Predict the 3D structure of the following.
Amino acid sequence: MYANKLNRLMLGLCSRQTTAAGRSAFSWTAVCKQRTLWLQERACLKTRRHVVTCHTSARSASQTTVDPDEVRRFQSLAGKWWDEQGEFAALHALNDLRVPFVRDNLLNVHRTPRPGKPLGGLRILDVGCGGGLLTEPLGRLGANVLGIDPVGNSIGTAQLHSAIDPDLRNRVCYRASTLEELSAELGGEGEEQGADPFDAIVASEVVEHLADLETFASCCNHVLKPGGSLFITTLNKTNLSYILGIVVAEQLLRIVPSGTHDWEKFISPVDLERLLESNGFSVQSVQGMLYNPASGAWSWTNSTAINYALHAVKVRDEPHADRAEDGGSRPEDHAGAAHS
Ligand SMILES: C[S@@+](CC[C@H](N)C(=O)[O-])C[C@H]1O[C@@H](n2cnc3c(N)ncnc32)[C@H](O)[C@@H]1O
Protein backbone atom coordinates (compact mmCIF):
# COMPACT_ATOMS: atom_id res chain seq x y z
CA MET A 1 0.00 0.00 0.00
CA TYR A 2 2.87 2.28 0.77
CA ALA A 3 5.17 2.12 -2.29
CA ASN A 4 3.00 4.12 -4.64
CA LYS A 5 2.09 6.55 -1.93
CA LEU A 6 5.71 7.20 -1.08
CA ASN A 7 6.68 7.56 -4.73
CA ARG A 8 3.82 9.98 -5.23
CA LEU A 9 4.89 11.69 -2.04
CA MET A 10 8.40 12.26 -3.40
CA LEU A 11 7.05 13.51 -6.74
CA GLY A 12 4.49 15.62 -4.95
CA LEU A 13 7.13 17.19 -2.74
CA CYS A 14 9.12 18.21 -5.83
CA SER A 15 6.13 19.83 -7.52
CA ARG A 16 5.06 21.43 -4.25
CA GLN A 17 8.32 23.41 -4.05
CA THR A 18 7.45 25.27 -7.28
CA THR A 19 4.00 26.15 -6.01
CA ALA A 20 5.22 27.14 -2.59
CA ALA A 21 7.70 29.58 -4.15
CA GLY A 22 4.83 31.51 -5.72
CA ARG A 23 2.11 31.43 -3.07
CA SER A 24 2.06 30.21 0.42
CA ALA A 25 -0.39 27.31 0.09
CA PHE A 26 0.92 25.61 3.19
CA SER A 27 2.14 26.97 6.48
CA TRP A 28 4.47 25.02 8.73
CA THR A 29 3.63 27.47 11.54
CA ALA A 30 -0.04 26.52 11.24
CA VAL A 31 0.84 22.84 11.26
CA CYS A 32 3.03 23.26 14.34
CA LYS A 33 0.27 25.21 16.14
CA GLN A 34 -2.26 22.58 15.15
CA ARG A 35 0.04 19.84 16.39
CA THR A 36 0.71 21.60 19.69
CA LEU A 37 -3.05 21.95 20.28
CA TRP A 38 -3.58 18.36 19.31
CA LEU A 39 -0.81 17.13 21.63
CA GLN A 40 -2.34 19.14 24.51
CA GLU A 41 -5.77 17.62 23.83
CA ARG A 42 -4.22 14.18 23.60
CA ALA A 43 -2.43 14.61 26.92
CA CYS A 44 -5.78 15.43 28.57
CA LEU A 45 -7.50 12.48 26.92
CA LYS A 46 -4.67 10.19 27.93
CA THR A 47 -4.91 11.27 31.53
CA ARG A 48 -8.67 10.64 31.49
CA ARG A 49 -8.19 7.28 29.80
CA HIS A 50 -5.54 6.28 32.30
CA VAL A 51 -7.89 7.01 35.19
CA VAL A 52 -10.57 4.83 33.57
CA THR A 53 -8.03 2.06 32.95
CA CYS A 54 -6.83 2.12 36.54
CA HIS A 55 -10.40 1.74 37.80
CA THR A 56 -10.93 -1.31 35.61
CA SER A 57 -9.56 -4.22 37.59
CA ALA A 58 -9.33 -7.36 35.45
CA ARG A 59 -9.12 -7.00 31.69
CA SER A 60 -12.26 -8.25 30.01
CA ALA A 61 -11.97 -11.30 27.81
CA SER A 62 -14.35 -9.58 25.41
CA GLN A 63 -11.68 -7.00 24.55
CA THR A 64 -10.76 -7.31 20.94
CA THR A 65 -7.83 -6.44 18.70
CA VAL A 66 -10.27 -5.57 15.92
CA ASP A 67 -10.78 -1.97 14.85
CA PRO A 68 -13.80 -2.04 12.51
CA ASP A 69 -12.51 0.94 10.48
CA GLU A 70 -9.26 -0.91 9.74
CA VAL A 71 -11.17 -4.02 8.71
CA ARG A 72 -13.35 -1.96 6.34
CA ARG A 73 -10.28 -0.37 4.78
CA PHE A 74 -8.52 -3.68 4.15
CA GLN A 75 -11.76 -5.20 2.91
CA SER A 76 -11.75 -2.70 0.06
CA LEU A 77 -8.17 -3.67 -0.86
CA ALA A 78 -8.60 -7.44 -0.58
CA GLY A 79 -8.25 -8.12 -4.31
CA LYS A 80 -4.99 -6.22 -4.66
CA TRP A 81 -2.56 -8.22 -2.54
CA TRP A 82 -0.67 -9.91 -5.36
CA ASP A 83 -0.24 -6.88 -7.61
CA GLU A 84 3.49 -6.42 -7.11
CA GLN A 85 3.42 -2.89 -8.54
CA GLY A 86 0.23 -1.90 -6.75
CA GLU A 87 -0.86 -0.77 -3.32
CA PHE A 88 1.11 -3.47 -1.52
CA ALA A 89 4.37 -3.19 -3.51
CA ALA A 90 6.35 -2.16 -0.43
CA LEU A 91 5.14 -5.23 1.46
CA HIS A 92 6.27 -7.46 -1.40
CA ALA A 93 9.69 -5.77 -1.24
CA LEU A 94 9.80 -6.08 2.55
CA ASN A 95 10.11 -9.86 2.15
CA ASP A 96 13.78 -9.27 1.27
CA LEU A 97 14.36 -8.32 4.92
CA ARG A 98 11.66 -10.02 6.95
CA VAL A 99 11.91 -13.54 5.53
CA PRO A 100 15.64 -13.89 6.36
CA PHE A 101 15.00 -12.13 9.70
CA VAL A 102 12.45 -14.77 10.71
CA ARG A 103 14.40 -17.68 9.19
CA ASP A 104 17.77 -16.83 10.72
CA ASN A 105 16.41 -16.07 14.18
CA LEU A 106 14.43 -19.32 14.18
CA LEU A 107 17.47 -21.28 13.04
CA ASN A 108 19.41 -19.81 15.97
CA VAL A 109 16.83 -21.33 18.32
CA HIS A 110 15.99 -24.55 16.47
CA ARG A 111 19.36 -25.77 15.33
CA THR A 112 18.24 -28.68 13.19
CA PRO A 113 17.85 -27.21 9.72
CA ARG A 114 16.74 -29.62 7.03
CA PRO A 115 18.44 -29.30 3.65
CA GLY A 116 16.29 -27.22 1.31
CA LYS A 117 13.57 -26.80 3.94
CA PRO A 118 15.32 -25.09 6.87
CA LEU A 119 12.09 -24.43 8.77
CA GLY A 120 10.75 -27.97 8.29
CA GLY A 121 8.76 -29.22 11.29
CA LEU A 122 8.02 -25.77 12.73
CA ARG A 123 4.48 -24.42 13.18
CA ILE A 124 4.16 -20.71 12.51
CA LEU A 125 1.13 -18.45 12.99
CA ASP A 126 0.96 -15.42 10.66
CA VAL A 127 -1.34 -12.91 12.40
CA GLY A 128 -2.87 -10.40 9.99
CA CYS A 129 -1.61 -12.37 7.00
CA GLY A 130 -3.60 -10.36 4.44
CA GLY A 131 -3.15 -12.06 1.07
CA GLY A 132 -0.35 -14.29 2.34
CA LEU A 133 2.66 -12.28 1.10
CA LEU A 134 4.76 -13.45 4.05
CA THR A 135 2.89 -16.70 4.73
CA GLU A 136 3.88 -18.24 1.40
CA PRO A 137 7.67 -17.77 1.56
CA LEU A 138 7.69 -19.13 5.12
CA GLY A 139 5.81 -22.18 3.83
CA ARG A 140 8.36 -22.60 1.04
CA LEU A 141 11.06 -22.72 3.71
CA GLY A 142 9.32 -25.83 5.03
CA ALA A 143 7.27 -24.43 7.92
CA ASN A 144 3.63 -25.33 8.47
CA VAL A 145 2.02 -21.91 8.47
CA LEU A 146 -1.46 -20.86 9.51
CA GLY A 147 -2.39 -17.40 8.24
CA ILE A 148 -5.26 -15.60 10.00
CA ASP A 149 -6.91 -12.30 9.22
CA PRO A 150 -10.30 -10.84 10.18
CA VAL A 151 -10.86 -9.76 6.56
CA GLY A 152 -12.56 -12.72 4.91
CA ASN A 153 -11.95 -11.51 1.35
CA SER A 154 -8.20 -11.26 1.99
CA ILE A 155 -8.24 -14.84 3.23
CA GLY A 156 -10.06 -15.80 0.01
CA THR A 157 -7.34 -14.11 -2.04
CA ALA A 158 -4.62 -15.86 0.01
CA GLN A 159 -6.25 -19.28 -0.44
CA LEU A 160 -6.64 -18.85 -4.19
CA HIS A 161 -3.04 -17.72 -4.60
CA SER A 162 -1.41 -20.44 -2.50
CA ALA A 163 -3.40 -23.11 -4.36
CA ILE A 164 -1.35 -22.30 -7.47
CA ASP A 165 1.79 -23.74 -5.86
CA PRO A 166 1.60 -27.50 -5.14
CA ASP A 167 4.56 -27.11 -2.77
CA LEU A 168 2.34 -25.09 -0.43
CA ARG A 169 -0.75 -27.28 -0.53
CA ASN A 170 -0.12 -29.25 2.64
CA ARG A 171 1.94 -26.64 4.38
CA VAL A 172 0.03 -23.37 4.29
CA CYS A 173 -3.55 -22.83 5.37
CA TYR A 174 -5.68 -19.82 6.10
CA ARG A 175 -8.59 -18.86 8.32
CA ALA A 176 -10.74 -15.78 8.61
CA SER A 177 -10.23 -15.31 12.32
CA THR A 178 -8.78 -13.09 14.99
CA LEU A 179 -5.94 -13.97 17.31
CA GLU A 180 -8.26 -13.82 20.31
CA GLU A 181 -10.65 -16.32 18.72
CA LEU A 182 -7.79 -18.69 18.01
CA SER A 183 -6.44 -18.21 21.52
CA ALA A 184 -9.83 -19.06 23.03
CA GLU A 185 -9.84 -22.34 21.06
CA LEU A 186 -6.53 -23.36 22.60
CA GLY A 187 -8.07 -23.41 26.07
CA GLY A 188 -6.03 -23.13 29.22
CA GLU A 189 -4.61 -25.20 32.01
CA GLY A 190 -7.13 -27.73 33.24
CA GLU A 191 -9.42 -26.93 30.30
CA GLU A 192 -10.01 -29.13 27.33
CA GLN A 193 -7.08 -28.58 25.01
CA GLY A 194 -7.82 -27.41 21.47
CA ALA A 195 -5.17 -26.95 18.80
CA ASP A 196 -1.45 -27.25 19.58
CA PRO A 197 0.51 -24.12 20.41
CA PHE A 198 2.87 -22.60 17.83
CA ASP A 199 6.66 -22.49 17.59
CA ALA A 200 6.54 -18.93 16.27
CA ILE A 201 4.22 -16.02 15.50
CA VAL A 202 4.77 -13.37 12.86
CA ALA A 203 2.79 -10.12 12.90
CA SER A 204 4.27 -8.01 10.15
CA GLU A 205 2.93 -4.46 9.64
CA VAL A 206 -0.09 -5.40 11.74
CA VAL A 207 0.17 -4.02 15.28
CA GLU A 208 -0.33 -0.44 14.06
CA HIS A 209 -3.80 -1.53 12.86
CA LEU A 210 -4.99 -3.15 16.09
CA ALA A 211 -7.49 -1.76 18.57
CA ASP A 212 -5.87 -3.28 21.66
CA LEU A 213 -2.20 -4.23 21.94
CA GLU A 214 -2.56 -5.62 25.45
CA THR A 215 -4.99 -8.28 24.18
CA PHE A 216 -2.65 -8.96 21.25
CA ALA A 217 0.40 -9.51 23.51
CA SER A 218 -1.53 -11.64 25.98
CA CYS A 219 -2.97 -13.87 23.22
CA CYS A 220 0.46 -14.21 21.57
CA ASN A 221 1.78 -15.54 24.86
CA HIS A 222 -1.14 -17.95 25.14
CA VAL A 223 -0.82 -19.51 21.67
CA LEU A 224 3.00 -19.85 21.74
CA LYS A 225 5.02 -22.77 23.09
CA PRO A 226 7.47 -21.96 25.89
CA GLY A 227 10.59 -20.63 24.17
CA GLY A 228 8.55 -19.78 21.06
CA SER A 229 9.42 -16.72 19.00
CA LEU A 230 7.39 -13.62 18.22
CA PHE A 231 8.38 -11.49 15.21
CA ILE A 232 6.90 -8.02 14.75
CA THR A 233 7.57 -5.37 12.14
CA THR A 234 5.91 -1.99 12.61
CA LEU A 235 6.23 1.81 12.66
CA ASN A 236 7.84 3.81 15.41
CA LYS A 237 5.97 6.64 17.09
CA THR A 238 8.22 9.57 16.29
CA ASN A 239 7.88 13.11 14.94
CA LEU A 240 9.28 11.79 11.66
CA SER A 241 6.57 9.15 11.32
CA TYR A 242 4.00 11.82 12.22
CA ILE A 243 5.31 14.26 9.60
CA LEU A 244 5.62 11.68 6.82
CA GLY A 245 2.57 9.61 7.63
CA ILE A 246 0.08 12.25 8.78
CA VAL A 247 1.10 15.80 7.89
CA VAL A 248 2.71 15.25 4.52
CA ALA A 249 0.77 12.26 3.21
CA GLU A 250 -2.67 13.24 4.51
CA GLN A 251 -2.76 16.99 5.11
CA LEU A 252 -0.17 18.46 2.76
CA LEU A 253 -0.23 16.28 -0.33
CA ARG A 254 -3.55 14.57 0.30
CA ILE A 255 -2.28 11.41 -1.33
CA VAL A 256 -3.94 9.47 1.49
CA PRO A 257 -7.47 10.25 2.63
CA SER A 258 -7.44 12.19 5.88
CA GLY A 259 -7.66 9.79 8.82
CA THR A 260 -6.02 6.83 7.10
CA HIS A 261 -3.16 6.73 9.58
CA ASP A 262 -3.70 6.89 13.29
CA TRP A 263 -0.42 8.04 14.78
CA GLU A 264 -1.83 7.14 18.19
CA LYS A 265 -1.57 3.49 17.20
CA PHE A 266 2.10 3.62 16.24
CA ILE A 267 4.37 2.31 18.99
CA SER A 268 7.99 2.92 19.91
CA PRO A 269 10.37 -0.03 20.33
CA VAL A 270 10.72 0.86 24.02
CA ASP A 271 6.97 0.77 24.65
CA LEU A 272 6.55 -2.40 22.61
CA GLU A 273 9.36 -4.03 24.58
CA ARG A 274 7.73 -2.98 27.87
CA LEU A 275 4.37 -4.37 26.75
CA LEU A 276 5.89 -7.68 25.65
CA GLU A 277 8.01 -8.09 28.76
CA SER A 278 4.94 -7.57 30.94
CA ASN A 279 3.29 -10.36 28.95
CA GLY A 280 5.96 -13.00 29.45
CA PHE A 281 8.37 -12.20 26.61
CA SER A 282 12.03 -11.33 26.49
CA VAL A 283 13.03 -9.11 23.58
CA GLN A 284 16.08 -10.48 21.78
CA SER A 285 16.68 -7.90 19.06
CA VAL A 286 15.31 -4.72 17.54
CA GLN A 287 16.54 -3.60 14.13
CA GLY A 288 15.74 -0.46 12.13
CA MET A 289 14.45 -0.77 8.57
CA LEU A 290 14.48 1.87 5.84
CA TYR A 291 12.37 2.04 2.70
CA ASN A 292 13.74 3.83 -0.35
CA PRO A 293 10.74 5.05 -2.39
CA ALA A 294 12.91 5.73 -5.44
CA SER A 295 14.30 2.20 -5.72
CA GLY A 296 11.40 0.46 -3.99
CA ALA A 297 13.90 -1.46 -1.85
CA TRP A 298 14.26 -1.91 1.90
CA SER A 299 17.54 -2.02 3.82
CA TRP A 300 18.57 -2.56 7.43
CA THR A 301 19.63 0.55 9.31
CA ASN A 302 20.80 1.38 12.81
CA SER A 303 17.99 3.91 13.16
CA THR A 304 14.60 2.69 14.35
CA ALA A 305 13.10 6.17 13.83
CA ILE A 306 10.56 5.08 11.21
CA ASN A 307 10.26 1.30 10.71
CA TYR A 308 11.67 -1.53 12.78
CA ALA A 309 11.67 -5.31 13.24
CA LEU A 310 11.59 -6.97 16.65
CA HIS A 311 12.24 -10.53 17.79
CA ALA A 312 11.03 -11.68 21.21
CA VAL A 313 10.97 -15.06 22.91
CA LYS A 314 8.33 -16.37 25.33
CA VAL A 315 10.03 -16.86 28.67
CA ARG A 316 7.04 -17.55 30.90
CA ASP A 317 3.31 -18.27 30.77
CA GLU A 318 1.11 -15.32 31.63
CA PRO A 319 -2.45 -15.48 33.00
CA HIS A 320 -4.66 -15.29 29.95
CA ALA A 321 -7.57 -12.84 29.56
CA ASP A 322 -10.15 -15.63 29.85
CA ARG A 323 -8.72 -16.61 33.22
CA ALA A 324 -8.03 -13.04 34.35
CA GLU A 325 -11.81 -12.58 34.57
CA ASP A 326 -11.97 -15.47 37.00
CA GLY A 327 -9.98 -13.51 39.52
CA GLY A 328 -6.49 -13.50 38.06
CA SER A 329 -6.26 -9.73 38.15
CA ARG A 330 -3.14 -8.17 36.74
CA PRO A 331 -1.54 -4.74 36.65
CA GLU A 332 -3.07 -2.64 33.90
CA ASP A 333 -0.65 0.27 33.92
CA HIS A 334 1.30 -1.06 30.95
CA ALA A 335 -1.82 -0.82 28.75
CA GLY A 336 -1.30 2.93 28.80
CA ALA A 337 2.40 2.58 28.14
CA ALA A 338 1.71 0.63 24.96
CA HIS A 339 0.08 3.64 23.41
CA SER A 340 2.07 6.44 24.98
C1 LIG B 1 -0.53 -3.73 6.28
S1 LIG B 1 -1.39 -5.26 6.22
C2 LIG B 1 -0.10 -6.45 6.46
C3 LIG B 1 -0.43 -7.77 5.82
C4 LIG B 1 0.65 -8.86 5.93
N1 LIG B 1 1.05 -9.05 7.31
C5 LIG B 1 1.83 -8.49 5.08
O1 LIG B 1 2.76 -7.88 5.62
O2 LIG B 1 1.82 -8.76 3.91
C6 LIG B 1 -2.25 -5.31 7.78
C7 LIG B 1 -3.12 -6.52 7.93
O3 LIG B 1 -3.62 -6.57 9.26
C8 LIG B 1 -4.94 -7.06 9.19
N2 LIG B 1 -5.64 -6.77 10.43
C9 LIG B 1 -6.36 -5.67 10.77
N3 LIG B 1 -6.88 -5.82 12.00
C10 LIG B 1 -6.48 -7.03 12.45
C11 LIG B 1 -6.68 -7.77 13.66
N4 LIG B 1 -7.39 -7.29 14.64
N5 LIG B 1 -6.11 -8.99 13.76
C12 LIG B 1 -5.36 -9.49 12.78
N6 LIG B 1 -5.13 -8.84 11.61
C13 LIG B 1 -5.68 -7.63 11.46
C14 LIG B 1 -5.51 -6.40 7.98
O4 LIG B 1 -6.70 -7.04 7.52
C15 LIG B 1 -4.34 -6.54 7.01
O5 LIG B 1 -4.40 -7.74 6.30
Observations:
- The CA atoms of residues 207 and 234 lie 7 Å apart.
- The first strand starts at residue 123 and ends at 127.
- Residues 65-66, 70-71, 74, 91, 127-130, 133-134, 149-151, 154, 178-179, 204-206, 209-210 surround S-adenosylmethionine (CB under 6 Å).
- Residues 68-187+195-244+260-319 form a domain with the Rossmann fold fold (CATH 3.40.50.150).
